[in-house]
Design brief:
The protein is of the alpha+beta class. The chain has helices spanning 9-12, 29-41, 60-65, 90-101, 109-138, 148-168, 181-196, 200-203, 209-219, 222-227, and strands at 21-25, 45-49, 73-76, 85-88.
Length: 232
């Protein structure tokens, strides 16, 4: 039987199925990237809720796995060399799981690097910029009298949507016919922009027909529907 007792995080979140991959997360746009990929892959996993309300992410147990105190994080009992692997940062986890299973990341070198390029487009652009739109429109920043910070991030989010819309023209997914971790990384942030931040009018979302087409197709995937609610 797999023994994960050497990992402090299992003291706060016991592994009832230690032979399965352990996921520590919340259904945020970064969190659901990993749960959706796990559902797409059909890998057995056990999900643990890291509650922000009780500041679980700052607990010694969580910090023992991820010193950056962010979700998601995983503990794979069947890592490289049949040894447990603890991993954090959603992009790194997506790459790891895709390479572990040989799915959702092309193996042909040029297409692999192109896919990683679009993954980094989300990690370095869409995620941070959309998050700032949410802060300055919906959360604490909404009370600032000076709207220039909000407008700066709205403009950048709009520009990024334009880049994505152009890329998706004539394509089913970011990489064409092939659904990849680039789509799994990007599309949860479109959902957050529309459903959580509710800034459709502010960013003129109706202009981005190709983004909306692909986003709606993505929402119809059964694995996406399941992964969006993990951990419940």
């Amino acid at each position: 039987m797999t023994d994960l007792s050497a990992f402090s995080i299992t003291r706060k979140w016991p592994a009832h199925h230690p032979e399965r991959l352990q996921l520590y997360s919340l259904p945020t746009p970064n969190g659901v990237k990993v749960s959706i990929l796990l559902e797409e892959l059909g890998l057995p996993y056990e999900a643990h809720k890291v509650s922000f309300e009780t500041r679980d992410q700052f607990s010694p147990e969580f910090l023992s796995l991820n010193p950056n105190n962010k979700i998601p994080a995983i503990l794979d009992p069947n890592g490289p060399g049949d040894q447990p692997l603890a991993l954090w940062e959603s992009g790194a986890i997506l790459i790891y799981l895709a390479e572990k299973t040989g799915r959702f990341l092309p193996t042909e070198p040029a297409r692999r690097y192109e896919t990683l390029q679009w993954l980094m487009f989300q990690m370095g652009g869409i995620g941070p910029m959309f998050g700032q739109v949410g802060f300055f429109y919906l959360y604490g920043g909404k009370d600032y009298e000076d709207k220039r910070p909000r407008d700066r991030y709205v403009a950048e989010a709009t520009r990024l949507l334009g880049v994505l819309d152009q890329r998706l023209t004539g394509r089913d997914w970011v990489m064409g016919d092939e659904y990849t971790i680039a789509d799994i990384a990007i599309l949860p942030w479109i959902r957050t922009l529309l459903e959580r931040y509710q800034v459709s009018d502010l960013i003129g979302y109706e202009r981005f027909a190709q983004v909306d087409r692909v986003y709606r197709a993505w929402l119809q995937r059964p694995a996406v529907q399941r992964g969006l609610n993990v951990p419940a």
